[in-house]
Amino acid sequence: MNKIGGYNVSNLNIKNESIYDNTKVIAEKKDNKSEENIGDTVQIEQKNNVIINTKKAYDALKETCDEVGTVTRDGYTYGSMMFSFYTMMDYMESQGISVPNFELSGNNLNNDNYLGFVDKIKEFTKNLSSQYPNVVPDNFYDFCDLFKEKLLQNGCS
Questions:
Q1: How far apart are CA 117 and CA 157, in angstroms?
Q2: How many other CB atoms are there within 10 angstroms of residue 85's CB atom?
Q3: Beta partners for 79?
Q4: Which residues constitute the domain of residue 34?
Q5: Rounded CA gap, 86 and 62, in Å?
Q6: What's the total number of domains in the chain?
Q7: Across the chain, what does the average pLDDT equal?
Q8: In a domain, 1, yes or no
Q9: Which of 81, 113, 80, 78 is nearest to 99 (CA)?
Q10: Longest CA span, the chain
Q11: CB 104 within 8 A of CB 55
Q12: Which of 28, 32, 62, 123 has its CA 20 to 30 A from that of 129?
């Protein structure tokens, strides 16, 4: 009576357990994938927020540069204040200080705190100016304050 239609019942039980185990493994993998998808979604959302924040910050920087206009010092024309701002950012980075950038890749995690960075660049520049006077134009600090206001107006963090 152990054989039904030429099949051994004990073999069917093993096969059923195997099917059950495989189904259980597949279900567990689906649960893990949904958790991974949630993690991916959170990462995508965070990356999108960084990209949006970066775009707002760049717009605020451009607006500030347009408002300040052409920078001249000692009879030389420097163009916009963006030159001095980027120079200080590069110098900070060469000193090992993390700085944001305006790349829309969303990969720079420092791009989520431009407001804090404005204070950081002002402090860094003040310290540097004590060693190297005239490293930036006289109105650089006013530019930074105006940039911070524009960041706030644009809803940037």
A1: 10
A2: 21
A3: 71
A4: 6-153
A5: 12
A6: 1
A7: 78
A8: no
A9: 113
A10: 107
A11: yes
A12: 62
Whether residue 152 has pLDDT greater than 50: yes
Residue with tokens 């024309």: 77
Query: Could you count the other beta carbons within 10 Å of the beta carbon of residue 35?
Result: 10
Chain Cα centroid distance, residue 152: 18
Residue 99 lies in a domain: yes
**What residue has token string 């009879």?**
75
Threshold 0.70, pTM exceeds: no
3-state secondary structure of 71: strand
Tell me how far apart the alpha carbons of residues 102 and 109 are, in angstroms, rounded to a whole number.
11
Whether residue 89 is contained in a domain is answered as yes
Residue 120 lies in a domain: yes
Residue with the two structure tokens 């689906």? 30
pLDDT at 19: 47
